[in-house]
Amino acid sequence: MNRLFFRFFVLVMLSITAATFVIYFLFARLFGDPLDDIARRQASAQIFLLEQYVDQAPDDEWLGRLNKVREVSEARFDLIPLAQAKNALPGRQHAALERGQLVLDPAHKAFYRRVDLTGDRYIGSDEEVLRADHLPIDLGQALLMEVLRYVVVALALLVPIGFWSRRHWRTLQTLSRVADDFGAGRLSARARLERADPVYPLAERFNAMAGRIQELLEAQKNLLHSVSHELRTPIARLEFALELLAERAADPATAAPALVKRIAAMEGDVIELNDLVNELLSMSKLDNVSEPQRVLFELEPLLRACADDLHPRPQRLVLDFGQHLGSVDGDRRLLGRAVGNLLRNAQKYAAAEVALLARRDGFRLEIAIEDDGPGIPDGDRERIFEPFFRLDRSRDRATGGFGLGLSIARKAVALHGGTLVAERSALGGARFVISLPDGIAPG
Q1: Considering only CA atoms, which of 39, 60, 70, 50 is closest in space to residue 114?
Q2: Residues in Cβ contact with 167 at an 8 Å cutoff, skipping those fewer than 6 apart
């Protein structure tokens, strides 16, 4: 709130300051310098003596009255040549002085006026100027008064701006918290604001958007779940039909090499379709899980079990767990699924070696799976975690997979508050690193 309030207050103050300068320069051009008016008011007593006492005297008594004013006034009145007066004043004031007008010089606390335009008062009076200095002009006091007015205006604005900013800040913070909750997967989060709140229309639009997103995601999950379950029925019928065909193929009287080959291919397709359904169901279940079912279990036996579950391949499998890894507070099944998927992915692409490494650094655990295969292009290291994305576009059983294994692994790790990233391996291929935060304990 402090930042919002300070920025808005500074903006208002800068706007008022800019408006003050614009008004000053505009008035100075149209009506004269406002400082001259202030100086004229402050020197009004001396100006009154000159205009109403000295100037009202007959020409032969004018100098005598001026001398009397010199005796009683605190200001000093002098007669100086016209040329000297012009040298003391800026050029823009020379015309007014020539016309016989009273010209103020607030900076030097003085004013000038010609004695006589026609020389009637005494000889040479048309070339003389009356200068009055030491006048009671104090522009600093006037400026101080303006500053005080400015401060009072600022303080008067400070209170309502503070209340206004505080109310907006509170409602925006509420909306921000709801957005964080929604982004964290709590799709039922909504902003509960009153109609009088400043951002109520925005909150209503946010709630409508959140509701629509929730409906779409739930519809997607329901569709995925329903389709996955519906696929199981025809898969079961296909399996039953394949069993009948297999029995017929086993009969020497009816068996034919082409029939046996076709049945084997169909069985492979059914297995592949069944695996796809299982993967889709796994994705659907992970999307519906908000918190894993945590238990405390030893990590090293889980990693060794994942390695033992791999199908035998010609590649060499290297296990390096360093010191004792200790226990993990998490969902054993989900973490095992993530590590298993990464190991099978590495085994599929590795040329000769797959490595499973694990290290504990304080209260942080790192599990790495590496291979010496072709690796992953830099531009695809995030895309490979998208569902159904595959670097190998072929979908035969030689390469296998549906592009769901890595996505399932990342979701499983994310449910534990960890991260899964793809890097370049020192072996030359890909390196997948699982990083688990707090929630683990040394054994």
Answers
A1: 50
A2: 197, 198
